[in-house]
Amino acid sequence: MGRNRSPTFANRQAAGKRLGEALRERDIEVDIVLAIPRGGLPVGHPVADALDVPLDISVAKKIGAPNNPEYAIGAVAADGSVWLNSDVINRREIPSDYVANTRSEMAETARQKAQRYRDSKSSLSLTGKRVCLVDDGVATGATARACIEQIRQADPERLVLAVPVASPRAISDLKALVDEVICLEVPSEFRAVGQYYEQFEQVSDEAAMSYLAAE
To answer: 148 by DSSP, 3-state: which?
Structure first.
């Protein structure tokens, strides 16, 4: 879409409203919206409102590289569903025991987070449902991949990925994993999700959980 000269979205809630409008304009019908915490919940809530469907979560944690936890070599969802970047793992010669141990640790962290967010409520059944997965943006796509794998395990009828902004490479890769992608901005000079928001502060667990409590 060319060079992005100024932030496209005022904040996550505004992005969510635009995303919800885009889904309605395209007549995309879903039964449930799943947001990826934390930043996906302020986006997912107005999407769920626009589509008049329940809001739930899909939780995944990055598997970071040794000595560089912010560099994702994969991601694992709360149920253990995992995506690993085998090319990076092989190229960097990352030990298999490191990958296995970190995967186990992050899966448990994701499970605990999902449990805390739902506050003892069980997750909604996705079998045979039309599901929309939402996040505030996609940079590498690692967490989205793990969440998609988790959702696919539940055998939904249809899976749509909806995000306000994404890198061209990541969104191209993710299109092969879902039935449809709705992405409002795919900047050719993408550097980071936050650069496309005027306000992109960290979302606390308490703030994120408030969007579920409003359901």
So the answer is: helix
Token pair for 201: 């502060």
Give the 3-state secondary structure of residue 113: helix
Strand 158-165 with 55-57, pairing:
unpaired
The strand pairing partners of 182, in sequence order, are 162
d(CA 6, CA 192): 13
Is the previous residue joined to 38 through a cis bond, with omega within 30 degrees of 0? yes
What CA–CA distance (Å, rounded) separates 86 from 134? 25
The model's pLDDT over 77-97, given as tens digits with 9 standing for 90+, comes to 999 999 999 999 999 999 999
Nearest one of 75, 45, 55, 47 to 142, comparing CA atoms: 75
* C-alpha span between 134 and 211 (Å, rounded): 14
Task: Give the tens place of pLDDT for each residue, 10-68.
Answer: 999 999 999 999 999 999 999 999 999 999 999 999 999 999 999 999 999 999 999 99
Cis peptide before 91 (omega within 30 of 0): no
Q: Which helix (H) or strand (E) holds 75?
A: strand 68-77
